[in-house]
């Protein structure tokens, strides 16, 4: 009984193993009935459900809780395979009390994860996340690495659907960390998931590498599951690289394999994708056929997200077929469904649950450590008490000596800390004074350039313009015009130098706008293609701190222009909660970081970063250089 995800690959069902230890052993009759039902799941699902029903009734009669649990769990999986997700959830939830009665923790974990799978297929991502984050700790406690890996892999599909690629990558790495190298099918599916992740992020070379790994494993393992995903993934690769004519055969081969795999959800999603590929080829007849098939099947299995996407796709096709009224009706229906599937509050709730899950894991680990420390402390007290009965006086003297020694040692530590703090404060004060002096000198020079030299140049220009040209020759007039143009250029250069020395826009517009203007000017006046990006809501900082940050960025860009031989560069500012992350990178020739730290330019940058109490990471190679600066905004005095 296998379930497939449209976004990542494979959603693993948690199936109870007969070899699992439990409080009760399977009776021969019940085991025989379960085996018989399993044999009919694909060919005659209704017959399988009937046998499972009889198995459940017999188990209840004999108070055989494991048998009742398995019959209900397997019934849910049959409904899940058929796309009857509400029925599947009903049976999963109904099976849980019997797993509890049988004291079977593995069964409880299976209920949570299988319920999460059904909710994910329904498009109820918030509830799905809740159940995944309930099931995973159960398997972690049981040290069932394979089940943990499969559960994390299922969770990556959910985060891919809501386009949270950061968490998708995080859980993919978790899944492969727990996976067993001997399980070629699961490993192949994980490789496929990594390939899809890279493809969605436009890293097609890496994506193709992982897809080829899946293909190789599918040939070794003769697995229809891997064969299906190998074809589907390669089709997706060629679709994303705009090669529809190559993608279509792969998708059609994958579509043929869905019959053997008995997966309605995956079939509806493949039909949707084929509709889009034929739309790209302007074969509207086939595009409409596959789109309508996808919509009908998705409605039958209540796959709301596929219904939403199919309605949107058919709206575009009908519009191309000059049926605007039908197109508009489908578009309206899709907007109504979209609010249900992709509600922003639901997505926020999913992120919150994930954060709570990670926090609870950390709190639990801390609690376990404290409990162990407490246990060790109790044992230590017992040993000390036993010894104290024989040598009480010696212990008292030892404790007194130890107390005096600790007191003086602690006093010395505090004094050393005070001295270190004072030295650090003195160093910061020196840096502040040095940078303040430098900024004052910059302002003075900028003012003199603006009011002095610029004013003199303007006066010279007006004197020249006042010359009577009537008595001048043609060459003299041309020289006069050239002289005026040179004066204008000199004035512009003086203004640029003055602005770089002390940009007024920091006071008027703030840090982000000033950096953006600076990057724009650099791009216009130099062959370097400089891109500026910022994310988040810019925080309000003291102007002195904003000036220091601006000088750091300015110095880094100047170094790129002077030394890197780069053609492109990026300045990125990311305001997140109480931190500011700054990235400055280029595609230049790089430099030796260790030797460069002795240079004046890098020392100036590090001094300013030290003043901000910020962190700096430098990564440089012959393919480029990256500076990563992390500023704790709480440490900047407001």
UniProtKB/TrEMBL annotation:
Signal peptide positions (record): 1-23
Reaction(s) the record says it catalyses: ATP + protein L-histidine = ADP + protein N-phospho-L-histidine
Membrane-spanning ranges: 385-408
Coiled coil: 414-448
Keyword terms of this UniProt record: ATP-binding, Coiled coil, Kinase, Membrane, Nucleotide-binding, Phosphoprotein, Signal, Transferase, Transmembrane, Transmembrane helix, Two-component regulatory system
Xref: PANTHER family: NITRATE/NITRITE SENSOR PROTEIN NARX-RELATED, NITRATE_NITRITE SENSOR PROTEIN NARQ
Protein name, entry field: histidine kinase
């Amino acid at each position: 009984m296998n379930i497939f995800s449209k976004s990542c690959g494979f959603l693993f069902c948690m199936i109870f193993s007969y070899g699992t230890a439990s409080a009760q052993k399977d009776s021969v009759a019940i085991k025989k009935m379960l085996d018989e039902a399993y044999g009919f799941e694909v060919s005659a699902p209704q017959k399988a459900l009937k046998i499972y029903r009889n198995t459940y009734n017999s188990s209840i009669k004999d108070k055989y809780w494991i048998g009742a649990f398995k019959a209900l769990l397997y019934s849910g999986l049959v409904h899940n395979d058929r796309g009857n997700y509400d029925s599947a959830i009903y049976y999963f939830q109904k099976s849980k009390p019997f797993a509890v009665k049988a004291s079977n923790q593995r069964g409880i974990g299976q209920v949570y994860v299988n319920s999460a799978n059904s909710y994910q297929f329904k498009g109820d991502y918030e509830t799905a996340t809740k159940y995944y984050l309930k099931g995973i700790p159960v398997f972690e406690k049981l040290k069932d690495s394979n089940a943990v890996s499969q559960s994390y892999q299922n969770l990556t599909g959910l985060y891919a659907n809501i386009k949270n690629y950061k968490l998708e990558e995080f859980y993919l790495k978790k899944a492969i960390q727990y996976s067993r190298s001997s399980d070629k099918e699961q490993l192949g599916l994980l490789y496929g998931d990594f390939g899809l992740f890279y493809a969605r992020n436009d890293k097609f070379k890496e994506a193709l590498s992982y897809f080829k790994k899946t293909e190789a494993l599918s040939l070794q393992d003769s697995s229809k599951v891997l064969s299906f995903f190998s074809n589907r993934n390669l089709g997706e690769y060629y679709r994303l690289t705009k090669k529809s004519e190559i993608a279509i055969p792969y998708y059609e081969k994958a579509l043929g394999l869905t019959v053997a795999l008995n997966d309605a959800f995956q079939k509806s999603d493949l039909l949707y994708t084929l509709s889009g590929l034929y739309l790209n080829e302007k074969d509207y007849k086939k595009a409409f056929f596959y789109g309508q098939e996808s919509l009908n099947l998705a409605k039958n299995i209540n796959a709301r997200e596929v219904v939403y996407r199919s309605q949107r796709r058919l709206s575009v096709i009908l519009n191309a077929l000059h049926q605007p009224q039908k197109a508009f009706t489908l578009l309206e229906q899709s907007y109504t469904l979209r609010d249900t599937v992709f509600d922003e509050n639901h997505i926020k709730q999913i992120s919150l649950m994930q954060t709570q899950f990670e926090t609870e894991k950390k709190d639990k680990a801390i609690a376990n450590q404290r409990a162990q420390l407490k246990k060790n402390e109790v044992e230590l007290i017992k040993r000390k008490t036993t010894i104290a009965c024989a040598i009480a006086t010696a212990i008292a003297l030892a404790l007194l000596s130890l107390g005096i020694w600790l007191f003086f040692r602690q006093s010395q530590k505090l004094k050393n800390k005070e001295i270190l703090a004072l030295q650090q404060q003195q160093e910061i004060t020196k840096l502040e004074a040095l940078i303040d002096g430098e900024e004052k000198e910059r302002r003075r020079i900028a003012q003199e350039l603006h009011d002095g030299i610029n004013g003199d140049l303007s006066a010279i220009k007006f004197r020249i313009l006042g010359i009577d040209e009537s008595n001048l020759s043609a060459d003299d007039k041309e020289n006069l015009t050239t002289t005026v143009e040179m004066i204008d250029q000199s004035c512009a250069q003086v203004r640029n130098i003055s602005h770089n020395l002390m940009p007024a826009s920091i006071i008027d517009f703030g840090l982000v706008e000033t950096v953006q203007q600076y990057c724009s000017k650099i791009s216009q006046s130099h062959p370097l293609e400089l891109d500026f990006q910022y994310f988040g809501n810019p925080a309000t900082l003291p102007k002195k701190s904003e000036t220091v940050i601006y000088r750091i960025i300015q110095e880094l860009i100047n170094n790129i222009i002077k030394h890197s031989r780069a053609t492109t560069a990026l300045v990125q500012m990311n305001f997140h909660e109480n931190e500011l992350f700054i990235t400055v990178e280029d595609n230049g020739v790089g430099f030796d970081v260790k030797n460069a730290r002795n240079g004046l330019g890098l020392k100036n940058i590090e001094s300013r970063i030290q003043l901000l109490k910020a962190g700096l990471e430098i990564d440089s190679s012959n393919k480029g250089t990256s500076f990563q600066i992390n500023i704790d905004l709480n440490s900047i005095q407001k």
